[in-house]
Design a protein that fits this description.
Elements (H helix, E strand, L loop, with lengths): L6 E4 L27 E6 L6 E6 L2 H8 L2 H4 L25
Parallel strand pairs: 1-2
Antiparallel strand pairs: 2-3
Keywords: Acyltransferase, Transferase
GO molecular function: acyltransferase activity
Family: Belongs to the plant acyltransferase family.
């Protein structure tokens, strides 16, 4: 019998955006995760939301990103740096 391990951790309320490295305000904070089957929750910069950093294999990620039950509460926002960045892949439908 084969089993998979999944890791879930919350970094919410760790105040990453308050840390002062002497370089000015943070633009964005993110975890670095080379492992699959990991979910990291973090506060957004403005503190009004939560980012979920999810790493799955390609087949599972394709299912995860299109799951209707998940999309009723969240959206995939493949946005790096800022929402105005050219690196953003905007969701096609607004979150209702």
């Amino acid at each position: 019998m084969e089993s998979e391990t999944h890791l879930l951790t919350s970094w919410c309320r760790f105040h990453f955006y308050i840390a002062d490295f002497g370089w000015g305000d943070h633009i964005w904070v993110s975890p670095v995760n080379p492992f699959k089957n990991v979910l990291v929750l973090m506060d957004t910069k403005n503190g009004e939301g939560i980012e979920a950093w999810v790493t799955l294999d390609a087949e599972d990620m394709a299912k995860f990103e299109t799951d209707p039950e998940l999309l009723a509460y969240a959206r995939a926002n493949h946005c790096f740096i800022s929402e105005n960045s050219e690196l953003c892949l905007k969701p096609t439908e607004p979150l209702s």
